[in-house]
Design a protein that fits this description.
Blueprint: E1 10-14, H1 18-26, E2 33-38, E3 42-44, H2 49-53, E4 63-65, H3 66-70, E5 76-80, E6 83-87, E7 92-95, E8 98-101, E9 104-107, E10 111-113, H4 119-124, H5 131-150, H6 154-160, E11 162-166, H7 170-190, E12 200-204, H8 216-228, E13 232-234, E14 239-242, E15 246-249, E16 254-256, E17 259-262, E18 266-268, E19 284-285, E20 298-300, E21 305-306, H9 320-338, E22 353-358, E23 361-366, E24 369-372, H10 374-387, H11 391-407
Parallel strand pairs: 1-2, 1-9, 2-5, 9-20, 11-12, 11-17, 12-13, 19-21
Antiparallel strand pairs: 3-4, 6-7, 7-8, 10-18, 14-15, 15-16, 22-23, 23-24
GO molecular function, one term: NADH dehydrogenase (quinone) (non-electrogenic) activity
Catalytic activity: a quinone + NADH + H(+) = a quinol + NAD(+)
Enzyme class: oxidoreductase
Length: about 425
């Protein structure tokens, strides 16, 4: 890897998500050599991924180069690589570009989609955990409309214009709201020769409520917002299969559709070589200092870490805030380790949660306060805008939002990355 030797302890961080970036930034110019590893050379801001998928933002506005994050560090290095295995006995990380030894190892690999063992759904549905996946989804949405124009088969056209979102957490709810706004304000202008009323947005949720992790008030408010936008919500509905053309559920409900977006669950993304310390969600079990069980020099942070406590019997929520807070504290604890001082326990400071459903519509839950509507929408925008890394990204997103607000448009409706999922669909001659 061509990483120089150092007199300082080497901290190897695997993953450049919220947790990995937080600890890397916090260790800036401390008495450590920091090596950040990731398969991408950028950090992506996942909470705004749905806006890339629906043409509201360009992908570059939510991505920030890893090397810029660490460029002011005296002794920090980034390598774009895929980590293949961890050898804890010999304290080394094996990657596709070589092997690197560590003094302290931080696993911040985040999460991956959980299909609960259903291979058909995994094969045929769409997801948007990464920017390439979001761009694929954007292409699929636009290509489906182009194909709908070309076919005379009304059943086929309806299937092409039917979008089914499985999972009504923040990702599913925000995507459903964005698609509904496109149906109401964007697609009628883009496709005047197409009956846009045929377009359906179906949101499928296995539990009794959407936004299960938020308050009942937020759940009900979000449900009303979505219904007002024309989204069809199906609660207590479990998806059993999707073959690429028809989605089936336990209750017998089915949809003909060529676009199923899966947001029904995530699981940890551990790395081969770690001891069998995984919980039921494939997360690595850690103690209150984020140390992996059985180790003092190996740590896990964020979505991949399962830290149990009295208040969090199933671990902390797989969200950005716990990851950032864990990363910040671990940087401090690493300094304490080198000085042989006692470590600080992690205590999660729940700052609340929020979700946007569309223009002037959002829900916000704070520890002792709930509100929704226009003010919540502005709060949501403010928080997400200032959470972005880099002044340029903040500026790009801000002006995109201003433009979209006043002209009620989404300017990024271009198929840059063709993704013809339905290659068997042929246009018919008139």
């Amino acid at each position: 890897m061509n990483i120089p030797d150092s007199s300082n302890p080497r901290v190897v961080i695997i993953g450049g998500g919220f947790a990995g970036v937080a600890i890397a930034q916090k260790l800036k110019n401390k008495a450590f050599q920091v090596v950040l590893l990731d398969k991408h050379n950028y950090h992506n801001f996942q909470p705004l991924m749905y806006q890339v998928a629906t043409g509201g933002l360009e992908s570059g506005s939510i991505a920030y180069p890893m090397r810029k994050i660490i460029k002011e560090h005296r002794e920090a290095f980034f390598r774009m690589t895929l980590v293949e295995q961890i050898d804890t006995e010999n304290k080394k990380v094996i990657t596709d570009i070589g092997t690197i030894y560590y003094d302290y190892l931080v696993i911040a690999t985040g999460s991956t989609n959980n299909y609960f063992g259903n291979k058909e759904i995994e094969k045929n549905s769409m997801v948007m955990k990464t920017i390439p996946e979001a761009l694929n989804l954007r292409s699929l949405i636009l290509e489906n409309f182009e194909l709908a124009l070309q076919t005379n088969d009304m059943n086929e056209r309806k299937a092409l214009m039917n979008f089914v979102i499985v999972g009504a957490g923040p990702t599913g709810v925000e995507l459903a709201g964005a698609l509904a706004e496109m149906k109401n304000a964007v697609f009628p202008k883009d496709y005047p020769d197409l009956d846009i009323s045929m377009m359906e947005i179906n949101l499928v949720q296995g539990s009794d409520n959407i936004l299960d992790a938020m308050s009942k008030k937020s759940s009900k408010a979000a449900e009303k917002f979505l219904k007002d936008l024309g989204v069809k919500i199906h609660l207590k509905t479990i998806v059993t299969n999707y073959d690429g053309k028809k989605i089936e559920t336990k209750g017998g409900l089915s949809f003909d559709t060529h676009a199923v977006i899966w947001s029904a669950g995530v699981k940890g993304a551990p790395i081969e070589g770690m001891p069998q310390t995984l919980d039921r969600a494939s997360r690595i079990r850690v103690n209150e200092f984020n140390q992996v069980e059985g180790f003092t020099d190996v740590f896990a942070l964020g979505d991949v870490a399962a830290m149990y406590g009295e208040k969090y019997q199933y671990g902390h929520p797989m969200m950005a805030q716990p990851a950032i807070q864990q990363g910040n504290l671990l940087a401090e604890n690493l300094e304490r380790l080198t000085k042989k001082q006692s470590l600080k326990k992690f205590i999660y400071n729940d700052k609340g949660s929020m979700a946007t459903i569309g223009r002037n519509k959002a829900v916000v839950d704070l520890p002792k306060l709930h509100f929704n509507g226009v003010f919540a929408w502005f709060v949501w925008m403010f928080v997400h805008l200032f959470s972005l890394i880099g002044f340029k990204n903040k500026t790009l997103v801000f002006w995109s939002w201003v433009y979209n607000y006043f002209v009620f448009d989404r300017e990024s409706r271009v198929i840059i990355r063709p993704y013809r999922k339905n290659r068997d669909i042929k246009p018919q001659d008139n």
